[in-house]
Design brief:
mainly alpha, 10 helices, Growth Hormone, Chain: A, two-stranded antiparallel ribbon, 2 domains
Length: about 280
């Protein structure tokens, strides 16, 4: 949560500094001061962190032992996670459009207001994380008490669908005037998109990390967690590759391509749902 608070404050600070001072030196100085504050807060809060033990039985010596796992079982778990990694690459391709297509849409097609500039829109994703996370956690907690909580793979599937729908918002925004690259579009289009994108992120990112930690064989947990972040990196890279073509298509066509990719990834989750659910 602390990271998201900082991520929400940063674009607001950047906007204010740009308007009031228009100084690169001050902008970098503010970033450095912010990092110093974050280090101080982290060090001060170290005492509140607790070490977490993996589930298992404690031996007489106090060590945690885990039930043995066959090689075939380990292979099945690793293959399941690799399938998940490949699928989530497509999610991150769509998600990281916040640094490409969505920012270009803010710069070229959206009304620029005094305190709502293209860089300011980076505020909305962390802000919506802070707002939506407690709501979703409360909802899942309620469903769990009713034995109706969806499994992690189902949450990921829903997240892919939601992410695809967020791109459709931009399709309609583009068809409503955004294609013209004239600063006439209401900021509500982008703010709504960030709201839906954030909802998808909450359903996929923390759920996926939890799934990896749960499914990965004990001796491969580090590698498998690295695989998740590797998929994130590939998705970010793919987002940049696709972002180069933002001006090569009509904007609605560009966002339609993204929506199609995300819906295909949702279909892939459905295809492998049985395999993914086996370990959820």
């Amino acid at each position: 949560m602390g990271i998201n608070i900082g991520a929400a404050i940063a674009p607001l600070a950047a906007t204010v500094i740009s308007i009031q001072f228009d100084s690169y030196n001050l902008s970098f100085a503010a970033a450095a001061i912010g990092m110093l504050f974050s280090i101080a807060i982290f060090q001060n809060g170290n005492k509140f962190f607790k070490s977490l033990e993996q589930p298992g039985k404690k031996t007489d010596a106090g060590e945690v032992s885990h039930p043995p796992m066959s090689w075939d079982e380990e292979i099945q778990r690793i293959l399941t996670l690799i399938i998940l990694f490949i699928i989530v690459i497509f999610f991150w391709i769509g998600f990281y459009q916040n640094g490409f297509a969505l920012t270009l849409f803010a710069e070229r097609s959206t009304l620029v207001l005094d305190y709502l500039r293209p860089e300011t829109y980076q505020f909305f994703n962390p802000f919506f994380i802070l707002v939506l996370t407690p709501i979703l956690l409360s909802l899942f907690s309620l469903l769990k008490r009713q034995n109706r909580e969806p499994s992690t793979p189902v949450k990921i599937f829903i997240g892919m669908i939601v992410m695809g729908l967020s791109m459709f918002i931009m399709v309609f925004a583009s068809l409503s005037g955004g294609n013209n690259d004239v600063n006439i579009m209401s900021p509500i289009w982008l703010i709504s998109t960030y709201l839906v994108v954030t909802l998808a992120e909450i359903l996929i990112s923390p759920m996926g990390l939890s799934f990896v930690s749960k499914v990965a064989p004990e001796r491969f947990q580090g590698i498998m967690m690295g695989g998740w972040f590797g998929a994130t990196a590939l998705g970010s890279y793919g987002s940049g590759l696709l972002g180069k073509y933002y001006s090569s298509f009509s904007h609605h066509e560009y966002f339609m391509i993204l929506a199609g990719v995300l819906f295909i990834s949702a279909i892939l989750v459905l295809m492998f749902m049985k395999k993914l659910k086996r370990f959820s």
